[in-house]
# Entry
Amino acid sequence: MKPAEDLFKNVVSHAKEYGFIFQSSEIYDGLSAVYDYAQLGVLLKNNIRTYWWEAMVRLHENIVGLDAAILMHPTTWKASGHVDAFNDPLIDNKDSKKRYRADVLIEDYVAKLEAKIDKEVQKADKRFGDAFDKEQFLATNGRVIEIRERSETIIKRMSKSLEEENLADVKALIEELEIVCPVSGSKNWTEVKQFNLMFGTKLGASAENAMELYLRPETAQGIFVNFLNVQKTGRMKIPFGIAQTGKAFRNEIVARQFIFRMREFEQMEMQFFIPPGTQKTWYEHWKETRLKWHLSLGMGQENYRFHDHEKLAHYADAAADIEFKFPFGFKELEGIHSRTDFDLSRHESFSGKKMQYYDAEQEQSYTPYVIETSIGLDRMFLAVFSSSLQEEELENGTRTVMRIPAVLAPYKAAVLPLVKKDGLPELAHQIIDDLKFDFNVAYDEKDAVGRRYRRQDAIGTPFCITVDHQSLEDQTVTIRHRDSMEQERIAISELKNVLDREVSLAAWLKKLEA
Ligand code: ATP
# Structure
């Protein structure tokens, strides 16, 4: 097993080497925390978006889509609370001149503490052997309980101080915990300050008349301001949802970990409008539904966990993250938030326009409550990419294989003529011409077929279809499975059925409903 750090380095270099992700404006030495999706990356990204969109919009009769503009009237962001409260607490180290998020420094400290629990478990496992009962150990071991309590106390104090805007106490906590700057190793910290994450821009030609705008920091507000437009024109009845994917921008203080935290990124959000008082039930419903979507991709149940928020955002009465085990540990992948009627009420009071819904069954008007599901497309890309990339020991060496869930794979199959002559390339192209309307299929004729298999393994292509001389005689081909490397001979006329069954969007969406 490679250490996590190597694994992550491997992810970043593989993404570049095989044309998934490039640094933005690389020829000018790049732009920090901004990335471009390359020829294969764009395919994987589109497939993730489609799988999310179709699971939301196509499979739910009561969810419709929207594509709102990135630029919105600036009052939107006053109403939403972003102008006043979309801040991160930052702290500088005076020696290294490096800037950090104060809450992240504390959370990293707690993560290190909690890693000690794993060590205790490993030690005990060795000591007790077969008789080891992990659950019991975690519940009763004095050292484990002590670490847990300490972590909880730290997080509770941090959350309380942040909530009360008591930034002096956040700094005091960093000092008490003796947290050092990872670069300089010193404890020479500045005060903690709030920093607004929105990017400003201007609309209009002349400086005097220019209107100050923001690039949207989340896609959700485009949905809220259109709530009544969609409800009325779509004759939607509550409960119903509006789904949207699109770019969002945040001037993140600490933008590292590759595409995990970017300054320009894409969100996939769904706001579900419900009667007040039903939020607990719907919140649980959407937590469960979203986890099911993740698990349907087969990336390992053990790689997901829920994390309930201690510190609630200004708009929420309950919130949880679905965390994924990235190479650098469990981190937020998706947020599920019970947003109350905060957003609609605020837009009503800032715009002076009614945002209420008339419920014909209850014979009354009310401001709906909202459950939000919000996932970063780029973070999902990183989850898929990092958990798929594997080095596998074989009898005759190793292979790099990306076990990308087949429905998301950039190419569903590659067609490979055994040699570049005797009519084999022509037959290979005929096969592609047959399949290309349903599936994205690659063609490769360079190098020995073994090397071509390896190339397709390294980009996650689920099937390699090899055309040889026998194919010309009996219209059969060899189909090789990426994961098992097994090969079988099947009729060319069967190819579409196999791909339909194994890699088509329809087949995977059906599994989701099963
Ligand atoms: P974090 O705590 O990691 O900053 P957040 O809680 O601010 O995230 P939300 O505002 O809930 O995130 O946004 C919803 C989702 O958008 C997140 O779960 C994440 O997947 C994605 N996301 C948020 N910020 C970024 C970013 N800077 N880069 C990439 N994805 C992001």
About this structure: The pocket of adenosine-5'-triphosphate is lined by residues 218, 250, 252, 261-262, 265, 267, 332-335, 374-376, 378-379 (CB under 6 Å). The chain has 18 helices and 23 strands. The mean pLDDT is 94.
